[in-house]
C-alpha cells in the first residue's frame, strides 16, 4: 500500500538514514534509566534468595532488630496468583509467586525482601535473614525430568511436563523408506539475555493522583500495568507504569517478573518510594533465561539431497515456572513449527515437550525459539550434504522454496509471503568467493589453524496479528497498536505510541513516517512512549512487531490528521479541498500556500477561523492491525568464514556476510544497526554465552567473569547486502527485522566449524561451541579414528 | 568518613562510607547519573570514568582512595572539544542504540585516542575488549573512534 | 552486589603501613583493588579494615642496577605496558602486562597484588616464576627475601606472613636469552585457561618455564626446562613427553582439554622463545 499521492519527494523521509533523535541525551550522559530516578526518601531493596535448587521452606526467621524492614509473602498481601502460559486445557499451570513461601524451585528464587537506606545496608539486612530449607532432589535435565520416578517440582502435576504436544503435517510414515536417513541429537544450552542495563524497579504511591506509580525497565508498560492490576487486585486506572530510558531488552524485559510485583506491593505497604536495581549476579541467576532446547531429529531425504521429511522430538527446558503472560509453550511450538525453515519439506512429525526443571523460568530472547530451530535444521542440512558428498550450498538450493511458489505454506504452517530465497543464497555466495576459500582451505594455514566456511538461511516471522496470537492461545493478544498524533498550536507534533523503544530508534523512525505523511521535518515531531499515563494502549516492542504495527498506526493516524489539515488549509486558502497538498510544512494550492502553523493555530486556539462544520483540535488516535495476521517474513542468508585452532579450539571469525530482505527499509542505518547487533548476540550464543548448572542445581556462571560476553575483539566487521521485496500487506511494504540477526549465527558458525573439520568425524551439535567443546570434538574424533 | 575530591573541575567535600565505591558516590551522592553500572564487579566497562586523567572502572575503585584526586565523568566532558568530535562521530556512525554503554565507551574512546593518536581498526577493537555493548555489535563504535581520531589528528591545534 | 562494611586506613610510608599491620591482625592490604574489590562486592570475601598502600611512593619504583632489576609491588600493569623496565627482559614484561584484563583495570592493578593473590590463572605469577624473581617482604621486624618458587604456595595462598607487605621483586638481569608466551583464554582479556612463559637459559643460567591455569598456583615445568638445557635442539616429540610429565605434576586432575591446552601453550612459548633467540 503506497502512501497517499500528495507527498512530494522533498518530504520523502521513509528510506532515509536520518541520524537518531535519541542519541543526544545518551551522548551527553543525560538519559534517564530507572536507576537514575531520584525521589525523596527513596529506600533500596535487596532480596533474600534461595541457595537451594529444590526444597521445602521450613521456616524463615527475621531477626528482631530488622523485623520491620524484612518482608515475606505474607507481609505483602493481598496478592493474587497470576498464571502465565497459553489458555489451553492441556497446559499445566503454576503461578510464579513474587516471593517463595512453600517451596523454592531454583537457586536464586526470591524468598524475602529487605529495605535499607542504601543497597549495601539492604544487603546487610538480607544476610541476617535465616531461611531454613529442607532440601529435595533437584531436576536439572529436561529429558530426564519426564522419566518415571523423577522428583516432581509441582506436586499436584502428574509429572514435570508443562505440556506435551505433537506437531504433525503430511504423513511421515510415507517417507520412512527414504534412501537417506540421518539422525542427530542437537542441543542449545541455557543463557541469559543480558541487556547491559539490568532490570530495575522504582515504585511509590502518589497520594495526590491516588495512584501507584511503577517505574520499571520494561519493553511494554501497558501489558505490565494489566498484569500488576491482576496481581495486586487493584483497579487499573490507579496504576501508572513508566518505562523510562531502557538499556536494552531483547525479550528479557517483556514478562511480568516477581520483583516487579513485589516492589509494587511493597510500595503500597510503606510510606516512601522503594527501589530495586537488579545486579548482574541476580540477572544471571534469577532473571529470564533462554534458549535451552534439546532436539532428537531424523531427516529423511533422497540421494540427490531433496529433503522429504523431518521427524523427532523437541524438549524445551522451561525452568520452574511459566512467566506471565505467555509462558514457555510458545517457545516449544515455535521451535517445532520453524523446523522446516525455508525448505519445501512436506512431512513433519515432531513430539514436543515443555519440561519443568529446577532452574529459572525460560522466556523470550531475540529470535525466540528460532535460533534453536534454525541451528537444528541448518545443521541437519549440512550433515546431509556431508553424507551425500555434496556442497552444503547445493543441498540448500535443491530444497529452498522458490519465488514462484510464494506465498508458500510450510509444513510448520507458516505462510512465507514473498522474497527470493535462492537468489539471496546466490548473492551471499557471490560475496564470499567460495572457490578461492576452498583453494585456501586446501593449501592450509601457516599457523596450523583450520579454515571453515558455513552458511545458514533463516526466516523471521514478523508483524503477526490477532489470528496468529489466538492460534498460539496467548492470554494477551498483541493484535494491534495505537498511535495518537497531536499537532500543537505552533504546528509542532506530539506522537504518542504504545510501543517502547529501547535502542531500536523508534523515536526516529516513527517520526520519519509521520513526517512523510504530514509534509513536516522529523525534527518537528516528538515521539513519546513508555508511559501508560501518556501513551494510548499498546503492547510494547517485541516479536519484530513495532515498525509494522506502530509504523502502521502512525501512518494511519498521520493520514487522518493530514486530511483534516488539508480541509482547514483549503478553507484558509479558499480553494477546493481536492486541489491542495501538504508539503514542506505547509498546505499548497498551486502557487499559494498556508503554513502548517497557521492551520495549527486555527485548529487549536482560533476556532472561529475553521470551516463550518469542522470540529476544532488536531488530535487523532488510530489503531492498526496489518491485514495479514500470520505475519510477513523477512529472511536472509548468513555466510561466515572462520579460523579455528584444532588443539585449543579457539575460533576467530574472519568474515561475516549477511544478505537479507526485510522489505522496505524505513531507516537503513537503523536497520543495519539492528542486524549487526543481532548477529553479535547470535555469535554470543554460538561461541561464548552459557549458564551451566551443577548436578545439584548450582548455577556455574554467576558473574561476567564466568559468563563470557563477546566484545569488539570477538565480533568481526560485517558485510551486509539488502534485497528489497516490499511486503504486500503492510504500510510502505515494511517487514519487521529486529530479531533476524540473532537467528542464523549459531547455525552458520557451527556449519563453518563442521566445514573446517569435514571428514574428521568431529561433530558440532551443541552450543556454545566454546574452545573446550571444539577441542574435545576434534580430539574425540581423532581418538575414534585411532580406535577404529 | 569525609572525602574531598575534584569532580568535573569542582572541589567537593562529602561524607561517605568506607565501603562506597567511586561509582556509588558519583551516582548516589553527587547525583551524576551519566556514569552507568552494568555489572558492579569490574567486568563490563559501563562505569568507566577518568581518575587523575586515566580511565578506571569506578565500581571497583574505593571512593575514599580518591581523596585529593581529580575525577571526570561524562557530564564533565560536555564542553570538551575533542570529546564533542568523538560524540559527533558516534552519532553519525550509529555507535549507540540503547545508550547504556555509551558514557563508558566515550570515556574509553578519548583515552584510546590520547594514547594512540590515530589507532587503526584492529587496535581499537583490541583496546575496547572488556567494554561490553549488548546492542550495537561494535561496528559503529569502532568506526566512530577511528574516524574521530583521524579528524582530531588532522587538526594540529586540537586537544 | 555491595560489600559488607569495613574500616579504612591509609598509610603514606612503609613504616606506617607495617606499623598498622603489626598492631592489628584484622587488617587487609589493598593495592589496586582490582581483584579485592570485585570479591568484596560479591561478598565472597570480607575485610575488617582495609589498609590502603597506594600512596607508598617507594613501592612504585623501578630500579635497574647492573646486576638486577627491582620492580616495586605497586607498579601497575599499565605502566609496564607503557614501557617501564622494557629493556630489562627484552620486552617480556611488557608483553605479559599488555594482555592482562583491560586497560582500565591495568591502570590500577599492580604486579604485587597479582602475585599476592596467587590466582591460579593469573599472568604475573607465571611470568615472575619463569624469571626466577625474588619477593621482597617487609614487616615491623624487618625485611626478608623469598624466591618466588617458595613464595607461591597454592591457589590463593602465599608465604606472606601476617604483618608483612610485599614491597617488590628483585630479578637478576639475564643475558638476553629468548623468551616466549603461550596463552589460551575463552575470550580476550579473560583469565587464562592456560598460560605458559618460557625463558631460555644462556651462559650458565638455567632455562625456566612456568605454567598458570592449573588448579593451584603458577607451577614450574622443570623437566622440559632441564631437557632444553641439556639438549637445546630437542625435537617436538621429546619436548612433548617432558611437558606431559610436567603437567601431571603441575595440574593434578587436569581434564583432557586442560592437558591439551597446557601442552599447546608450553610448546608455543618454547617455539616463540627459540625463534626470538635465533
Ligand atoms: C575484569 C578483570 C579481569 C582480570 N583479568 C586478569 C587476567 O586476565 N590476568 C590476571 O593476572 N589478572 C587479571 N585480573 C586481576 C588484576 O590483574 C588485578 O589487578 C590483580 O590480580 C591484583 O592486583 P591489585 O593491585 O588490584 O590487588 P588488590 O586487589 O588490591 O589485592 C589483591 C590481593 O593482594 C593483597 N595485596 C596487594 N598488594 C599487596 C602488597 N603489596 N603486599 C601484601 N599484600 C598485597 C591484597 O590484600 C589482596 O589480598 C583481572 C581483573 C578484573 C577486574
Ligand atoms: S559496572 Fe563497573 S565494570 Fe561493569
Ligand atoms: S548501546 Fe546498548 S549497550 Fe551499547
Overall strand count of chain A: 31
Considering residues with a beta carbon less than 8 A from a beta carbon on another chain, report the largest interface and each chain's count: A-B, 57 and 57 residues
Biggest sheet descriptor of chain A: 7 strands, mixed
Quaternary: heterotrimer
Low-confidence parts of chain A: 1-8
Spatial strand arrangement across the major sheet of chain A? 3-5-1-13-10-11-12
- Tell me, briefly, the overall form of chain A: globular
Largest sheet of chain C: 5 strands, antiparallel
Structural class of chain A comes to alpha+beta
Question: Mean of the pLDDT scores of chain A?
Answer: 95
Are any ligands bound, and if so which?
A: flavin-adenine dinucleotide, FE2/S2 (inorganic) cluster
Give the tally of β-strands of chain C: 14
Sum up the structure in keywords.
heterotrimer, B: 159 residues, alpha+beta, Ubiquitin-like (UB roll), DNA polymerase, domain 1, 2 domains, C: 278 residues, Uridine Diphospho-n-acetylenolpyruvylglucosamine Reductase, domain 2, Enolase-like, domain 1, 24% strand, globular, binds flavin-adenine dinucleotide, binds FE2/S2 (inorganic) cluster, oxidoreductase activity (chain B), iron-sulfur (chain B), 2Fe-2S_ferredoxin-like_sf (chain B), 2Fe-2S (chain B), iron (chain B)
Amino acid at each position: 500500500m503506497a502512501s497517499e499521492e500528495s507527498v512530494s519527494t522533498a518530504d520523502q523521509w521513509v528510506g532515509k538514514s536520518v541520524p537518531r533523535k535519541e542519541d543526544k541525551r545518551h551522548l551527553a550522559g543525560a538519559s534517564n534509566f530507572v536507576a537514575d530516578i531520584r525521589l525523596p526518601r527513596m529506600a533500596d531493596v535487596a532480596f533474600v534468595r534461595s541457595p537451594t535448587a529444590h526444597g521445602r521452606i521450613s521456616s524463615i526467621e527475621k531477626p528482631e532488630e530488622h523485623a520491620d524492614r524484612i518482608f515475606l509473602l505474607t507481609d505483602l498481601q493481598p496478592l493474587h496468583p497470576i498464571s502465565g502460559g497459553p489458555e489451553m486445557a492441556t497446559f499445566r499451570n503454576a503461578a510464579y509467586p513474587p516471593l517463595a513461601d512453600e517451596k523454592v524451585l531454583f537457586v536464586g528464587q526470591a524468598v524475602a525482601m529487605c529495605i535499607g537506606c542504601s543497597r549495601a545496608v539492604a544487603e546487610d539486612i538480607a544476610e541476617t535473614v535465616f531461611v531454613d530449607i529442607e532440601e529435595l532432589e533437584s531436576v536439572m535435565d529436561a529429558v530426564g525430568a519426564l522419566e518415571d520416578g523423577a522428583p516432581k517440582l509441582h506436586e499436584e502435576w502428574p509429572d514435570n511436563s508443562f505440556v506435551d504436544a505433537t506437531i504433525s503435517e503430511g504423513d511421515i510414515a510415507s517417507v520412512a523408506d527414504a534412501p537417506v536417513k540421518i539422525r542427530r541429537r542437537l542441543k542449545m544450552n541455557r543463557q541469559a539475555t543480558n541487556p547491559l542495563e539490568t532490570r530495575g524497579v522504582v515504585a511509590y504511591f502518589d497520594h495526590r493522583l491516588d495512584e501507584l506509580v511503577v517505574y520499571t525497565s520494561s519493553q511494554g508498560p501497558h501489558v505490565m500495568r494489566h498484569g500488576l492490576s491482576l496481581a495486586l487486585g487493584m483497579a487499573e486506572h490507579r496504576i501508572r507504569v513508566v518505562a523510562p530510558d531502557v538499556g536494552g531488552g531483547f525479550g528479557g524485559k517483556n514478562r511480568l517478573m516477581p520483583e516487579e510485583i513485589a516492589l509494587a506491593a511493597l510500595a503500597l505497604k510503606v510510606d516512601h518510594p522503594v527501589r530495586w536495581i537488579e545486579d548482574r549476579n541476580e540477572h544471571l541467576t534469577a532473571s529470564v533465561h533462554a534458549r535451552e532446547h534439546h532436539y532428537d531429529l531424523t531427516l529423511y531425504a533422497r540421494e540427490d539431497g531433496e529433503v522429504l521429511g523431518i521427524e523427532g522430538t523437541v524438549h524445551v527446558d522451561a525452568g520452574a515456572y511459566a512467566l506471565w503472560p505467555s509462558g514457555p509453550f510458545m517457545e516449544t511450538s515455535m521451535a517445532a513449527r520453524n523446523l522446516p525453515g525455508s525448505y519445501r519439506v512436506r512431512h513433519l512429525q515432531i513430539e514436543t515437550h515443555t519440561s519443568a526443571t529446577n532452574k529459572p523460568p525460560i522466556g523470550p530472547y531475540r529470535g525466540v525459539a528460532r535460533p534453536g530451530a534454525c541451528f537444528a535444521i541448518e545443521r541437519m542440512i549440512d550433515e546431509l550434504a556431508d553424507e551425500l558428498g555434496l556442497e552444503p550450498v547445493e543441498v540448500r538450493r535443491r530444497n529452498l522454496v522458490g519465488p514462484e511458489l510464494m506465498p508458500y505454506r510450510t509444513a510448520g504452517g507458516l505462510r512465507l509471503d514473498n522474497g527470493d530465497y535462492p537468489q539471496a543464497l546466490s548473492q551471499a555466495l557471490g560475496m564470499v568467493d567460495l572457490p578461492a576459500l576452498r583453494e585456501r582451505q586446501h593449501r592450509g594455514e601457516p599457523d596450523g589453524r583450520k579454515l571453515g566456511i558455513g552458511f545458514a538461511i533463516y526466516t523471521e516471522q514478523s508483524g503477526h496479528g490477532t489470528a496468529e496470537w489466538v492460534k498460539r492461545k496467548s492470554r494477551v493478544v498483541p493484535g494491534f497498536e495505537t498511535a495518537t498524533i497531536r499537532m500543537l498550536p505552533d504546528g509542532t507534533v506530539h506522537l504518542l505510541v504504545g510501543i517502547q523503544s529501547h535502542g531500536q530508534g523508534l523515536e526516529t523512525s516513527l517520526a520519519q513516517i509521520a513526517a512523510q505523511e504530514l509534509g513536516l521535518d522529523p525534527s518537528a515531531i516528538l515521539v513519546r512512549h513508555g508511559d501508560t499515563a501518556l501513551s494510548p494502549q499498546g503492547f510494547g516492542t517485541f516479536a519484530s512487531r513495532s515498525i509494522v504495527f506502530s509504523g502502521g498506526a502512525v501512518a494511519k493516524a498521520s493520514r487522518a490528521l493530514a486530511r483534516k489539515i488539508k480541509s482547514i488549509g483549503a478553507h484558509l486558502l479558499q480553494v477546493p479541498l481536492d486541489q491542495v497538498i501538504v508539503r514542506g510544512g505547509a498546505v499548497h494550492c498551486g502557487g499559494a500556500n498556508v503554513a502548517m502553523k497557521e492551520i495549527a493555530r486555527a485548529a487549536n486556539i482560533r476556532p472561529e477561523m475553521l470551516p463550518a462544520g469542522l470540529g476544532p483540535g488536531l488530535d487523532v488516535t488510530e489503531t492498526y492491525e496489518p491485514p495479514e495476521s500470520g505475519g510477513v517474513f523477512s529472511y536472509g542468508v548468513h555466510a561466515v568464514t572462520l579460523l579455528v585452532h584444532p588443539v585449543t579450539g579457539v575460533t576467530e571469525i574472519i568474515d561475516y556476510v549477511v544478505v537479507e530482505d526485510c522489505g522496505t527499509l524505513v531507516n537503513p542505518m537503523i536497520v543495519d544497526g539492528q542486524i549487526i547487533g543481532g548477529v553479535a548476540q547470535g555469535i554470543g550464543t554460538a561461541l561464548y554465552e552459557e549458564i551451566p548448572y551443577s548436578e545439584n542445581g548450582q548455577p556455574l556462571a554467576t558473574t561476567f567473569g564466568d559468563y563470557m560476553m563477546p566484545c569488539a575483539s570477538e565480533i568481526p566487521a560485517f558485510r551486509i547486502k539488502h534485497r528489497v521485496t516490499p511486503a504486500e500487506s503492510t504500510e510502505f511494504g515494511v517487514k519487521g527485522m529486529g530479531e533476524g540477526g540473532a537467528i542464523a549465527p549459531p547455525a552458520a558458525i557451527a556449519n563453518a566449524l563442521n566445514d573446517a573439520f569435514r571428514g574428521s568425524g568431529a561433530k558440532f551439535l551443541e552450543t556454545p561451541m566454546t574452545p573446550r567443546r571444539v577441542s574435545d570434538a576434534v580430539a574425540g574424533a581423532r581418538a575414534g579414528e585411532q580406535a577404529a | 568518613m569525609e572525602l574531598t575530591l575534584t569532580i568535573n573541575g569542582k572541589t567537593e567535600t562529602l561524607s561517605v562510607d568506607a565501603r562506597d565505591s567511586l561509582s556509588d558516590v558519583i551516582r548516589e551522592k553527587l547525583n551524576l547519573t551519566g556514569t552507568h553500572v552494568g555489572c558492579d564487579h569490574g567486568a563490563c566497562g559501563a562505569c568507566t570514568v577518568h581518575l587523575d586523567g586515566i580511565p578506571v572502572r569506578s565500581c571497583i575503585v574505593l571512593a575514599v582512595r580518591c581523596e585529593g584526586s581529580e575525577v571526570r565523568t561524562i557530564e564533565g566532558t560536555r564542553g570538551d572539544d575533542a570529546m564533542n568530535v568523538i560524540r559527533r562521530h558516534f552519532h553519525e556512525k550509529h555507535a549507540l542504540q540503547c545508550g547504556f554503554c555509551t558514557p563508558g565507551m566515550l570515556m574509553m574512546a578519548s583515552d584510546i585516542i590520547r594514547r594512540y593518536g590515530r589507532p587503526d581498526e584492529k587496535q581499537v577493537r583490541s583496546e575496547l575488549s572488556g567494554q561490553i555493548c549488548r546492542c550495537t555489535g561494535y561496528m559503529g563504535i569502532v568506526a566512530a573512534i577511528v574516524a574521530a581520531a583521524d579528524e582530531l589528528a588532522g587538526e594540529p591545534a586540537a586537544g | 552486589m555491595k560489600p559488607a562494611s569495613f574500616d579504612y586506613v591509609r598509610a603514606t610510608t612503609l613504616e606506617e603501613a607495617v606499623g598498622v599491620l603489626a598492631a592489628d591482625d584484622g587488617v587487609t592490604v589493598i593495592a589496586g583493588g582490582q581483584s579485592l574489590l570485585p570479591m568484596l562486592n560479591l561478598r565472597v570475601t570480607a575485610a575488617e579494615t582495609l589498609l590502603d598502600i597506594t600512596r607508598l611512593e617507594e613501592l612504585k619504583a623501578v630500579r635497574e642496577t647492573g646486576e638486577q632489576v627491582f620492580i616495586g609491588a605497586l607498579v601497575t600493569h599499565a605502566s609496564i605496558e607503557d614501557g617501564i623496565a622494557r629493556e630489562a627482559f627484552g620486552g617480556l614484561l611488557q608483553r605479559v602486562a599488555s594482555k592482562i584484563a583491560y586497560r582500565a583495570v591495568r591502570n590500577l592493578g599492580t604486579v604485587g597484588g597479582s602475585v599476592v593473590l596467587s590466582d591460579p590463572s593469573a599472568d604475573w605469577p607465571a611470568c615472575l616464576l619463569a624469571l626466577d624473581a625474588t619477593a621482597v617482604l617487609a614487616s615491623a621486624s624487618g625485611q626478608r627475601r623469598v624466591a618466588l618458587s617458595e613464595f607461591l604456595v597454592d591457589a590463593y595462598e602465599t608465604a606472606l606472613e601476617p604483618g608483612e607487605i610485599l614491597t617488590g621483586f628483585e630479578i637478576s638481569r639475564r643475558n638476553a636469552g629468548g623468551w616466549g608466551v603461550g596463552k589460551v583464554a575463552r575470550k580476550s582479556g579473560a583469565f587464562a585457561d592456560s598460560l605458559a612463559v618460557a625463558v631460555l637459559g644462556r651462559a650458565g643460567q638455567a632455562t625456566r618455564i612456568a605454567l598458570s591455569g592449573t588448579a593451584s598456583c603458577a607451577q614450574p615445568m622443570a623437566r622440559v626446562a632441564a631437557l632444553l638445557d641439556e639438549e637445546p635442539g630437542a625435537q617436538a616429540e621429546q619436548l612433548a613427553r617432558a611437558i606431559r610429565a610436567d603437567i601431571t605434576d603441575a595440574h593434578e586432575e587436569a581434564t583432557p582439554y586442560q592437558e591439551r591446552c597446557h601442552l599447546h601453550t608450553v610448546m608455543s612459548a618454547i617455539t616463540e622463545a627459540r625463534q626470538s633467540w635465533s
